[in-house]
Amino acid sequence: MERFIEQKQEEMLELIEQLVNIDSGSYMKEGVDLVGSILTKKYEELGFVVEVREEKEYGNHLVIRHKNTIAPKIILLAHMDTVFPEGTVAERPFTIKGNRAYGPGVVDMKSSLVELLYAMQALVHAGSKSIENVEIILNSDEEIGSPSSRSLIEERSIGKEFALVMEPARKDGSLVMARRGGGRYTIVVEGKAAHSGIEPEKGRSAIEELAYKIIQLHDLTDHEKGMSVNVGIIEGGSAVNTVCDSAIAHVDVRISELEQGEYLEERFKEICATSEVQGTNVVLEGEIGRPPMEHNDQTKSLLDIIKDVGEEIGMEISATATGGGGDASFTSATGVATVDGLGPVGGNAHSDKEYMEIDTLPERTLLLAMTIARLSETE
Asked: In this record, what's one Pfam family (predicted)?
């Protein structure tokens, strides 16, 4: 398989260029669907069946299986959307400088989409039956929290033993063994306006009440446990000489364990159930949108297998935890052994300096293909 993949490197780069040069931000359905249609044709040529999950607001999701697949044990996740607005490609299309490829979404994750496709090609070329043991989900809204694809991923995770997620490797080549989960909350405080000079005693300051809430919320942070609460945006007030009658706080929550989300949810409710400033009213909205990807025994065992495969092909595999969220959290939370970061090495994702290390493309494709084959042998 190694020689086959090496011979395909230029072809892979040509496809990456084609995909990168399509604006496919999460809210750009036409662009995401174009990426999907190109990949659909490629998979169908390999003998895979592509089920299109139609979406009205976002791009369509793709569920891909080999035509002979019956009960696959491996689920592979990749996303077709990027964070970039329409017109970005015209400003800075795909380019190659030395060993690096540049362009919007080149490493997060247009190159991963191509790596995944060519890993399947390599397995088909090798005559491996492991192609019948995989189910691939290509979704269209990962960059905005997977609002329409989360249920699909959770549904398709049922009955699977392993999840391989195609987010890019870290800059040092590390895989991802754990991700923090998180959520967003909004706290709205309603008070009573009054002139701060003439009759301040008649006012009920929403800002004052919100200040109490912010202090209580931040006190819930425990960095040693990987649990953090951050009020990142506050709104309120109409004039400096007016007692504020309405104030809003936007809260970001990060957790390392599922139970932490339940704990914070209860504490938030308790904090917002009463008012420190008499006459103000507090409303809490929000939820934990992504569960954490926990580094449990299942993940550890899967990671050990990938490390063994890496050693076999001359790659030293390391793994790390990251604070960012991703779809790996959904498979992990359903009890499936999950490892992320199987895409090529790169960096500066979500910026105008995003790049992919070209020489890691064939080696990561080989690692992925051989991992799939090894996991299919160990059923």
From this structure: Peptidase_M20
